[in-house]
Amino acid sequence: MFMFNSLVENNLKIISKLKKSLARPDLGAITGTILVFLFFILVARDTGMFSLEGTMNWGIVSSQFIIIAVGACLLMIAGEFDLSVGSMIGFAGIVIAVTSVVWGWPIWLSIIIAFILSMLLGALIGFIVIKTNLPSFIVSLAFLYILRGLTIFGSIHSTQKTIIGGINEVSKGDWLAPLFGGKIFTGLFTWFAEQGWIDVFEFGTRAGQPIVDGIPMMIVWAVVLVIFAHFLLNYTRFGNWIFASGGDAKAARYVGVPVDKIKILMFVFTAFCATVFATCQVIEFGSASADRGVLKEFEAIISVVIGGALLTGGYGSVIGATFGAIIFGVVQQGLFFIGVESSLFRVFLGIILLLSVIFNAHIRKIIIGKG
Amino acid sequence: METPIMQLTDIGKHFCSIKALSNVSIKIIQGECHCLLGDNGAGKSTFIKIMSGVHQPTSGQIYFSGEMTTIESPRSAIDSGIATVYQDLAMIPLMSVMRNFWLGRELVKNIGPFKIMDTKKCNAILMQEMEKMGISLHDPSQSVGTLSGGEKQSVAIARAVYFGAKVLILDEPTSALGVYQTEKVLKTIAKVREKGIAVVFISHNVNHALEVGDKFTVLCRGKTLGTAVRGKIDYAQLQYMMSGEKLN
User: Fold this and answer.
1) B80 near A CB under 8 A
2) Cβ-Cβ contacts under 8 Å, B115 against chain A
3) Which of A220, A270, A349, B115 has the smallest set of CB atoms within 10 Å of its CB?
């Protein structure tokens, strides 16, 4: 009988350990990423998806998702949503294009102004949410329309067009633009090419130069933002306050956590991430378009949810959201590589979103001891 | 007679034209457990919200350590050593015990230009404090949601004590608990009292109050019916007073 008891106790310990490792927010996304990679390695290995060039391709797309997911992740953990992210991307892009191309400002000034304006708008959304006590879902939905409308109006009013080109010309020789549109390690990649380790162009004006000639700043920004947000969330007291603000704002206020300030700052950070995305895209494409960023807010939120964050706030992981975004990028580009109709990507998204939410609800029960 | 750590005299509180409290007086002495009893709606909540700085009294005086004072906000109450543990707002269930315990007062250390939470030290002090309070905790990183109701209250009490509470206000700490859990919390309260901290125990359960209380103040329809001392009052009398009859 005694032996039986200790056996049971041991088993219980193992189960509780297992439960604890299961109760990681990022577990689902990491498993999902491994499965997605396995799938495409099996199905798409002959298509060049995993060549250096192919990797760069889905790497950049994933990075785009990561940049906006990081902002959405911290905001969701703090207990709020921002549905204006997509409109903010269009807005920031047009601000840069109109001020630099149409008004002739130096592009570094345009970029800084775009950042200041969007972050102020982020603060305004946060302020309204706090002051009115309305769900941020509704307040930011209002801004989704307000910003998109203003962007299209501003673009048409100043140029009679919704697409403004000519960014390449005005960003030449600028000191700030390369921070968003440039590439790093170009010397290293040229050296790789000289050693014959990577493919080079065989014909044309760029013959002899590497096809992949550096790491784009989009990827660099994604890595930097992930490291920053993960560190902030898990290793600083501010991070602890983010969790607390989303977990139970009232309880957090009672112990002196400045909940309002934290929520507003997270709206500002989300706007910052959206502007990083917009600026990288504008500099890279050489143009801004008033309809850019449509549906990006939902893609950001889906990445975060796949990453294990709870829609109700107070729980989540930057690493999880990052893997959520990678799943996004790899599947979207992978379907392209294997020649599957791209509309099926949305079907996949819907299904994986549903599965993630069901899975997360279960994990939540385990954490709060009701599983 | 000992000087009270906190004294509230003739406290009145109106919400618009509704009188929530009138002429309530109470003396809180260090190392004593003062039970505030009353039926639902008797004004207990309003009274402790005045004590913890959430509400301002319409009339009356508050003395802290013998000096007249006003308690402007929950923050200033905490700063002067008045800690309140609310029944349902004690802890954030999705966060770990450690993160909850240190919330708002996290220990930090410098790593280069960065200030990061000193997790090791936070965990060590937490385990030490839990042990002192007789709470067995397996793992500081377990979420508060996995604790029982009694454990949650006890951890919240331990937190208030560790951060230097002189007056500890407990809002219905046992009302949602079972017999065994209640026993645990009452034991924790007894330990707190031994440390010389004044405990204000709000309850509508006379049995729980009689188990740990030194003084008993009954609130009824916003008025106090006087304060009784342990041993000079029994269950029947307290129950009778709570239901709205005069002390004789």
Assistant:
1) no
2) 236-237
3) B115
CB contact under 8 A, B146 and A243: no
3-state secondary structure of A310: coil
Query: Residue written as tokens 């279960």?
Result: A362
Distance from CA of A238 to the nearest CA of B (A): 9
Q: What are the φ/ψ torsions at residue A355 (nearest 5 degrees)? A: -60, -40
Residues of A with CB under 8 A from a CB of B: 20, 23, 231, 235-237, 239-241, 243-244, 247-248, 250-257, 310, 314-315, 364, 367-370
Q: At what angle do helices B179-194 and B149-162 cross, to 10 degrees?
A: 10
| pLDDT > 70 in chain B, percent | 96
Helix runs in chain A, H state only: 2-22, 27-44, 52-77, 85-97, 107-132, 136-159, 167-171, 178-181, 186-194, 217-235, 237-247, 249-254, 259-285, 296-306, 318-337, 344-367
Segment A97-123 mean pLDDT: 97
Low-confidence ranges of chain B (pLDDT < 70): 1, 89-90, 244-248
Query: Is the pLDDT reported for residue A199 higher than 90?
Result: no
Q: Taking the C-alpha atoms of A348, A349, A354 and A359 in order, what is their torsion angle to the nearest 10 degrees? A: 90
Residue B63 C-alpha, separation from nearest chain A C-alpha, in angstroms = 22
Q: Which of 90-149 (B) contact A at CB < 8 A?
A: 90-95, 99, 102-106, 108, 114-117, 142-143, 145-147
Q: Do B92 and A256 touch (CB under 8 A)?
A: no
* Confidence (pLDDT) at A200: 85
In angstroms, the CA A97 to CA B116 distance is: 40
The residue extents of the domains of chain A are: 26-367
| Cα dihedral across residues A320, A324, A329, A335: positive or negative | positive
Chain B CB contacts of A369 under 8 Å are 143, 145-147
Q: Which pair of tokens denotes residue B161? A: 């004590």
Q: What is the tens place of the pLDDT at every residue in B100-138?
A: 999 988 999 998 888 899 999 999 999 998 888 878 888
What architecture (CATH level 2) is domain A26-367?
Answer: Orthogonal Bundle (1.10)
Contact check, Cβ <8 Å, A254/B74: yes
Interface A–B counts its CB contacts (< 8 A) at 84
A73 pLDDT exceeds 90? yes
Residues of chain A positioned with their CB less than 8 A from the CB of B105: 255-256
Task: Label residue A1 by pLDDT band (50, 70, 90).
Answer: very low
Q: Per the structure block, which two tokens stand in for A284?
A: 């890279």
What does each C-alpha distance from A188 to A202, A207, A222, A328, B239 come to in angstroms?
A: 19, 18, 21, 29, 84
Cα separation, A169 vs A322, whole angstroms: 34
Enumerate domains of chain B plus CATH numbers.
6-91+149-242 (3.40.50.300), 93-146 (no CATH)
Distance from CA of A280 to the nearest CA of B (A): 28
Put simply, the answer to whether B74 touches A370 (Cβ < 8 Å) is no
Cα separation of A121 and A161, whole Å? 24
Q: How confident is the model at residue A341 (pLDDT cuts 50, 70, 90)?
A: confident
Q: Is B43 left (phi over 0), alpha (psi -120 to 50) or beta?
A: left
Pinpoint the alpha helices (H) of A23-106: 27-44, 52-77, 85-97
CB contact under 8 A, B94 and A243: yes
Please report, as a single letter, which amino acid is at residue A7.
L
